[in-house]
Amino acid sequence: MVQPSFLGNDNRQLLEILAKLDHSYRGVVxxxxxxxxxxxxALDAAGIVGVRWNLIEGRSALPNLSDPQWIDFLDHLxxxxxxxxxxxxxxxxxxxxxxxxxxxxxxxxxHIGLPVDADPLQDPGCRLLLEAGQAGRTWIKLxxxxxxx
Length: 149
Known about the structure:
TIM Barrel, alpha/beta, 34% helix, 5 strands, single chain, Amidohydrolase-related domain-containing protein, 5 helices
C-alpha cells in the first residue's frame, strides 16, 4: 500500500491499516529528509519497505542531492534495503534519475514514468528507464498512465 500524496508525511493512517492486517502486506510512506535511521528501522518493523517522493511539477521541487541530509536519507534507505518510489514527469526524470541511480538506491518509477511525448520511445525519461533497467535496481510501476496532451 502506498501513502497517498494528499496526506504528505503524515503516515499514521497507513500504519494503522498495516497494523490491522496480517504481515504479508507492506507499505510505502512519505518521509522528510530529517528522518533518522532509527525512525526508519521502526517503520520497517511495522511493515514499511519504501519511500515515495511526489515530485510532480508545481507540487514539489526536486531534492538537491548534493545536500548532506538527502545523501544521509538515501544511505538510510539503502541500509534498510528499501526502495525509493519516484512520481514525476518523464521529461524531468533525467534531472534526478542519474544521481539516484549512481547512489545505488533501489528505484520504483511510478505511473510508467509519466511520458510526456506522444511516442514514449522518443520520451527522454522512457529512454533513460529502458537503459537503466539493465542494472536490476529499477522497476517501473504500471499504474494510472496519463495520456500526453
